[in-house]
Write a structure and sequence with these properties.
The chain has nine helices and eight strands. It has about 220 residues and is α/β, with parallel strands linked by helices. Strand 3, helix 4 and strand 4 form a beta-alpha-beta unit. Helix 6 runs parallel beside helix 7. The two termini are about 25 Å apart. Bound molecules: pyridoxal-5'-phosphate.
């Protein structure tokens, strides 16, 4: 199995769909990321703050690092100097902390709001009832060092494609609603991060603009942190 070939295969399928590939390299050693990097791939998604910081320090500085995993407010400070996009903003408190740390670093940090679309409670995100209230409140406008560029969601872990399809459609419809309702000058709804190794084709068909793919590129993960 070749990482570079796996990426190439997915990118061929993504051509003309408007969706971008975010290779998810969590738990994988920097040498494997370098294989992809040396073939020209400069975007990686990571889940764990310590691992993300370690890889950032070890690897070339022109990489775009995306934080896709659950992020605790007290750890934002470690990634604020360099992170390109945080996909997993799941509370007002977290967004406020990102804003504070972005200001300290004299940056504007791009963010996606994570929406809870799955049936599992273990997955985080704003409830669909909360997200519209949050975007139409005056909270976001006051946070000048963040820029919301869209939404992220994770579907339920199931073989039942109809469940996943319903969840993707729900997320896409919330996305369109927010795009229409949004009045924040520092928010726009242009990116929809949905789809992983097992459901990315369905996600793209339903309007995803960013697919986060780990195991289909780097192989199964044999440990979790
Ligand atoms: C691990 C992870 C992925 C990638 O999962 P695969 O099934 O290996 O493609 C995508 N998104 C999030 C939020 C993840 O935690």
């Amino acid at each position: 199995m070749s990482i570079v070939q796996n990426i190439k295969d997915i990118e061929i399928e993504l051509e003309n769909t408007g969706a971008k590939l975010i290779p998810v390299s969590k738990t994988k050693p920097a040498e494997l990321l370098l294989e992809a990097y040396n073939a020209g791939h400069k975007v990686f998604g990571e889940n764990y703050v310590q691992e993300l910081v370690d890889k950032y320090e070890q690897m070339p500085k022109d990489i775009e690092w995306h934080m896709i995993g659950h992020l605790q407010s007290n750890k934002v400070k470690y990634i604020a100097p360099f992170v390109s996009l945080i996909h997993s903003v799941d509370s007002a408190k977290l967004l406020q902390e990102i804003n504070k740390q972005a200001l300290k670093n004299n940056r504007i940090i791009k963010c996606l709001l994570q929406v809870h679309i799955a049936t599992e409670d273990t997955k985080s995100g704003f409830d669909t009832s909360e997200i519209v209230a949050f975007v139409t409140s005056d909270v976001i406008e006051s946070l000048k060092n963040v820029e919301i560029i869209g939404l992220m969601g994770m579907s339920t872990f199931t073989d039942d494609k109809s469940v996943v399809l319903d969840e993707f459609r729900e997320l896409k419809s919330i996305f369109e609603m927010l795009k229409a309702e949004n009045k924040n000058s520092n928010a726009k709804f242009v990116e929809l991060s949905m789809g992983m190794s097992d459901d990315w084709q369905l996600a793209v068909q339903e309007g995803s603009t960013m697919v986060r793919i780990g195991s289909k590129i780097f192989g199964n993960r044999n440990y979790t942190l």
